[in-house]
């Protein structure tokens, strides 16, 4: 796993490349901190993934009991209001309004916020405000609240703008189109890491 405090999280897009176990291992050994695997674990051969990598995989489910113990539970925002937490708290969830972020303190460790930039994988989908305005809102929330989940930016992030995400006060960046809409996801991750190391 990446030891840099700025986390990098990949998100599968349903393509064969994004659900290839060998590519998953290369990305995780190459510095990707987490991979949000949007397909059911049993349908994708994830159980073939060596156990050392399994805690880096986030799996979506409406209940934690649906996620194998060695993986991490991602609770989709649409399921958040109906979920029960008798079997534990989710590791992560998603939001589309920063006002929801403080309300998730003590409930999740990671919050994915989107969109920051025009989407690579969803043409026509983009932010409602500029990154400058978003950065001001992130800063104001951090000043008002001490214990917050880590905030991961999502939406249109690639090598050309990932440093802006870090500069805007995010704890990490989620990558989808930047990994899967290129010829080599491992090389794309390396380029993003190079930008962040400057």
From TrEMBL:
GO biological process: thiamine biosynthetic process
InterPro entries (alphabetical): Aldolase_TIM (IPR013785), ThiamineP_synth_sf (IPR036206), ThiamineP_synth_TenI (IPR022998)
Protein's name according to its UniProt entry: Thiamine-phosphate pyrophosphorylase
């Amino acid at each position: 796993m990446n030891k840099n405090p700025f986390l990098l999280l990949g998100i599968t897009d349903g393509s064969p490349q994004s659900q290839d176990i060998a590519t998953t291992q290369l990305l995780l050994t190459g510095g990707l901190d987490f991979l949000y695997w949007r397909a059911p674990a049993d349908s994708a051969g994830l159980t073939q993934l060596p156990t050392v990598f399994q805690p880096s995989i986030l799996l979506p489910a409406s209940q934690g009991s649906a996620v194998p113990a060695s993986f991490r539970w991602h609770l989709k925002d649409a399921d958040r209001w109906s979920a029960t937490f008798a079997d534990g708290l989710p590791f992560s969830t998603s939001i589309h309004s920063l006002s929801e972020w403080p309300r998730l303190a003590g409930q999740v460790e990671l919050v994915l916020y989107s969109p920051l930039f025009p989407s690579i994988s969803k043409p026509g989908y983009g932010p409602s405000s500029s990154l400058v305005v978003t950065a001001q809102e992130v800063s104001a929330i951090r000043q008002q609240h001490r214990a917050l989940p880590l905030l991961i930016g999502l939406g249109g992030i690639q090598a050309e703008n990932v440093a802006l995400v870090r500069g805007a006060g995010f704890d990490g960046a989620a990558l989808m189109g930047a990994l899967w809409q290129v010829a080599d996801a491992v090389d794309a991750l390396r380029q993003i890491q190079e930008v962040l190391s400057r």
